[in-house]
Design a protein that fits this description.
alpha/beta, Rossmann fold, 2 domains, eight-stranded mixed β-sheet, five-stranded parallel β-sheet, flavoprotein
Length: about 425
């Protein structure tokens, strides 16, 4: 399969077997385990089918207490079973996994993660997981205490070590009055992870077991209660970096500055406003990170003083004077004082003229390993879904990335980061 535009374009391939007839669509198995979030999988199923995927739903017996078999069958267009004894002559416990292009389990309960990690196979879904030779994605959902339990964390680490993508659960309202980490991510964002994993085909989850930190958006430096100094950054490139890293198996911390975008599935998001707040969040997250990618547009300066009341026009018509002071240089600080040996640091340089010359100067001055240099302007890059750049390496390398989706640039960055980590 290849990527073209925003959606992956799949090489035409005719396959037969458990799906019953010759089909021409990517085959996805949607496993659903027994958690209250099972109802959200209906939305994920809709997105997968409407985008051209052939989806077979394989629920557990417990999952049917939350959403009935008739619903799954009607939405997918395929019969639904939970056990290996149905249609035995077609050997479904083997065929379903063998013919799949992707298996996604959403929600994945603590029990399901434990069974998958230990190779148990007591129903159709767990048998499918053992026979699948395609990429496998787990979207956990459970109470915070269950997610944080050492047993669950060991099971997650085992699955990731084997190449499965286990996306981090979201933080939010759980069942009852409880709130915390363990909520199933938004189905639309889980779909984006599936889309990215499918686009990579059977390529290994090369960032599995790695922790990466990405900054995104643009900082805002308050002048008074209603005004600030800011920039045009939308955060889309940083979010693309976070999404692609999650799809490649990484544990991702995204430090987001004023980006009006939904939190990517499987990503720990820290929301900040100013450059000082971003520095604090990035340095904290970078303490155990394998790589840090500074895609945020960080203000170089901030007002030296904050006006407690709105700055008004004065009767004498005198123009107000705003004194600026330098913000900390976060990229240079990260590069000079690596939190751990071998940590890879990547910067971004948004330039309006002499792009490559200015980029090389900045790379040397900042001391980072890679610098993504692109030309920006009022109608270039900011807010767009596309980007083009040249990635400069401290080793003298230059990697041009042609105009295309920001996800394509993100994948190139992670390819270069992964090579340095290896």
């Amino acid at each position: 399969m290849v990527c073209h535009g925003y959606e992956p374009v799949y090489v035409r391939r005719i396959a037969y077997g458990e799906w019953g007839v010759a089909v021409d669509k990517p085959k996805v198995v949607l496993g659903v385990s027994g958690g209250i979030a099972a109802y959200k999988a209906c939305e994920l199923l809709r997105r997968l089918t409407e985008s051209g995927h052939d989806v077979r739903v394989v629920p557990t017996e417990s999952a049917l207490h939350f959403v009935g078999a008739a619903t799954w069958s009607a939405l997918s267009g395929h019969p639904v079973s939970t056990e290996v004894w149905s249609d035995v002559h077609e050997v479904p416990h083997v065929r379903i996994g063998q013919h799949a292009d992707l298996v996604i389990v959403a929600p994945a309960t603590a029990d399901m993660l434990a069974k998958a990690a230990h190779g148990l196979a007591d129903d159709l879904l767990t048998n499918t997981l053992l026979t699948a030779r395609c990429p496998v994605v787990f979207a956990p959902a459970m109470h915070t205490e269950m997610w944080e339990h050492p047993a669950t964390q060991e099971n997650v680490a085992t699955l990731r070590r084997r190449g499965a993508v286990v996306i981090e659960p979201a933080v939010g309202r759980l069942t009852g009055v409880d709130t915390g980490k363990g909520r199933l991510p938004d189905p639309g964002e889980i779909f984006e992870v599936c889309r990215r994993v499918l686009a990579r085909g059977n390529a290994e989850a090369d960032l599995a077991g790695r922790h990466v930190v990405v900054s995104a958006g643009g900082t805002r430096e308050p002048l008074d209660p209603v005004r600030y100094l800011g920039n045009r950054s939308s955060g889309k490139q940083g979010y693309a970096l976070a999404r692609t890293a999650a799809a490649r198996g990484a544990r991702v911390t995204l430090v987001s500055a004023n980006a009006a975008l939904p939190d990517p599935a499987g990503v720990d998001v820290v929301h900040v406003g100013t450059a000082v707040q971003l520095r604090e969040a990035v340095l904290k997250a970078a303490a155990d990170a394998d790589a840090v990618v500074m895609a945020a547009a960080v203000a170089d300066f901030r007002p030296s003083a904050y006006a407690p009341g709105k700055i008004k026009k004065r009767d004498d018509k005198a123009d107000p004077t705003i004194t600026l002071v330098r913000n900390p240089d976060i990229l240079a600080e990260l590069s000079a004082d690596r939190a751990r040996p071998g940590q890879v640091v990547v910067g971004f340089a948004a330039e309006t003229d002499d792009v490559l010359a200015n980029g090389r100067t900045k790379l040397e001055r900042k001391g980072c390993d890679l610098l993504v240099v692109n030309e920006v302007g009022e109608r270039k890059t900011f807010g767009s879904e596309e980007n083009e750049a040249v990635v400069l390496g401290a080793d003298g390398s230059e990697t041009p990335v042609p105009y295309g989706p920001k996800e394509a640039l993100a994948d190139v960055v992670w390819d270069l980061v992964g090579a340095r980590l290896r």
